[in-house]
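Known limitations

Files may contain more than one protein. Parsers should not assume a single record per file. Below, a two-record file is shown to illustrate correct handling: read the sequence, read the token line, then continue until end of file.
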Amino acid sequence: MPEPPTDGDDPWWAVVRRLFKAHQLPAPESSVDVEELGQLEGKLPEGFANLSKNSAFVALLRRVDLSTSSDALRRQLVRRPLTKTSIQAFEAALGVTESERMHLKNLREGTTSQYLRNEILQQELRHLRAIGLISMKRSIYEIPLEFDLSEWAELTVRGYEYLRLFDESSSAD
């Protein structure tokens, strides 16, 4: 982790002070010790700190920060801040492809018949299972050539939440 700026007037410190103040913690002046960071981390939603370790999420934030839409995104987040649940869903969503999202929607809507097994589909199901959006009723490698997806997989609570948040964000556009 890079060292914080030594100049207490650096804009970085304004952000740090605002963050600490928002969580009713005494803001550091020109250095942050481990105990202060621990207090702040204790106020954050579960899983929030893990986002900083998620390279896809960090890359996304860097792209947003470099884009012209970063101010619009900040305004939207102020109007509708991320909750613990939406942060988890957003984290899970970072690697979801359009094809995977269609499998999730099909499971939710019950349009799961006439699936054809192939390697790509099996990889997609493994990915959705790995990020907690579906659970498998039986082993993926046992799926027959033609099958009904609902007989093999089901949405988890997290999967339903992901779709709800995705639908909300799509309708807000």
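...continuing to the second record:
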Amino acid sequence: MSALDEKIAFLKARLDEDERFAKRATEGPWTVDIHGNRYSIRSPWRQMIDDGGNEVPGGRTNNEVAAGFTYVDGAHDNVYFIARFDSARALAEIAAKRSIINMAEKVESMARAIGSEWGLTDDDVEGQDIIDEMLQVYAEHPDFQEGWRS
């Protein structure tokens, strides 16, 4: 396995982990309710379903994703930040990152196929650089290799 293949495998494994967490989280988008020091992050209104999988007539609910009290300056900003990065956004970002990885692999493959004809070196190929930048998000992961740090 090449160094690039190792990096891509690492990235894909991290995205798979992120996706598992996002899919287990309450479905987004999330909204914020703040009343004084009390906050609540909620998911959208949904039709209530009974144990048999049938809609409950007139039954609608929304889930409280998180709730608590804020006593620290700037805590409301934290609440809005958390709500902004809900599971729906996380899943969209994961899909976009996978697409970028696929594009980088194609760039790398095409450059290697024609590189010798055009006199390209590894430094001329941008696919590797894209992957190297994406790796930095996971620099604190235990499987991250120090040689990957930029």
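Parsers that stop after the first record will miss the second one. For reference, the second record is described as follows. The chain has four helices and five strands.
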